[in-house]
Amino acid sequence: MSGARVHDSVPHTARPPRPRRGALLAGSVGNFVEWYEFGVYGYFATVIAARFFTPEGGSETEGLVRTYASFALAFFFRPVGAALFGRLGDRIGRRPVLILVIALMTSATTLIGVLPTYATVGVLAPWLLTFLRVVQGLSAGGEFGGAVSVMTEFAPRGRRGLYGSWQSFTVALGLLGGAGVAALLATVLTEGQLSDWGWRVPFLLTLPLGLVALGLRLRLEETPAFRHEGRRERPPGREVARAVVLGAGRVMGWSAAGYTFLVVLPSYLQNTLHTGFRQALLATVVANLGFAATIVPAGLLSDRIGRRPVLLTGAGLVVVLSVPLLNLLQDAGTSSAVKGLAVCGAGAVVGLMAGPGPAMLSEMFPTSVRHTGLGLAYALSNAVFSGCAGLIITETMKRTGSVDIPAYYAAATCAVSALALATLPDNRGS
Question: What is the pLDDT of residues 200-244, one digit of tens each?
């Protein structure tokens, strides 16, 4: 199961275009909401550290580490959510689970926007924030498996890579949306206003976004594959577990490099290279534009030449280019244009992995365990290599004094991921 192609028994020609479009929209919009919020949390990490994790007289670095620890904790609840909601999705259907998780995600994110800070309620503030992050982690754990299952199970034959790539594309749009809102607020508000109340605005904006997502999912049809195959006998648990571990290994480079270059970058630029908040956000927007530009073409290309060569190219480029790209940013003599190309290129190579990644995971599991299996593989990889990225990078830089740690981290994880990706079969036309 872990390496073979998976084909639904329902003829692809029997799937009309309208439900396909509805599946793409309903699946994509939840991913947008999820990654908009996670991006916002990363972009405002320094502000959140000051408001929730740094008592008067406390160290800014220690506060940032605690902020990333809360960030990581939410990611470690993703596998729990993937197992819980994935099991429901494989038993009662993709549609009801996707409705439930978007409601939970929207509620938790909106409540972050009204939380009292450390100055108001003391030590209760970080605990309240962490609790809401846990709820987000649980709901996000069920989101990916359900959304990718819906997209790929509605996809026409030979187009799983393209359809699955929309999951990653809306991740890029969510991160861009969060960066855009943060950059706009940083432009129109003073630093004092941004720190006092402006940081709350992006979280409160999740409410209307979530309501739109909920409306789309209420109109979503159940997938033909689940209706015909969802209640078939499930493969042995040991076989599923092996596929989950292999899947997590295959996407670990995507997870780690994506968070390093697309989410951790603003804090790195501010705290290590002493770049202004607005300039750091602008660099993040450029990186995410590069990320978004390659995702869908990479997914489409993987339908034509196979998942393996596209994914291996992305992982290999990260290994080779991470240190040189970071050194360009560190060099004060590098022009702004070259630095812009560097961060755009960093995002683009991650997009080569993010495009075919969802389809690759979907094809590793049969319909009866797909929601659970691919959700767990993705959630485990994200918990360890994305959620901990900021914490690992910040703490290691603090202990070693090396400013190249982000590049080493991205390169090392992609090197290991490439070994797992080398075992992929030829998936052309599936």
Answer: 999 999 999 999 999 999 998 888 888 887 566 778 888 999 999
Letter string b/e over residues 94-105, b meaning 16 or more CB atoms within 10 A of that residue's CB: bbebbbbbbbbb
* d(C-alpha 317, C-alpha 180), whole Å: 27
Which 8-state DSSP code applies to residue 51?
I
155, 23 Cβ separation under 8 angstroms = no
* Alpha helical stretches, state H, 9-123: 17-43, 45-48, 60-76, 78-92, 94-112, 118-121
Phi, psi dihedral angles at 414 (to 5 degrees): -70, -30
- Which residue in this structure is represented by tokens 């190309």? 341
In 146-280, DSSP assigns E strands to none
Listed in sequence order, the DSSP H helices in 219-264 are: 224-229, 237-259
34: which residues sit within 8 A by CB, 6+ positions away?
105, 136, 140, 143, 171, 174
Tell me the average pLDDT across 391-412: 89
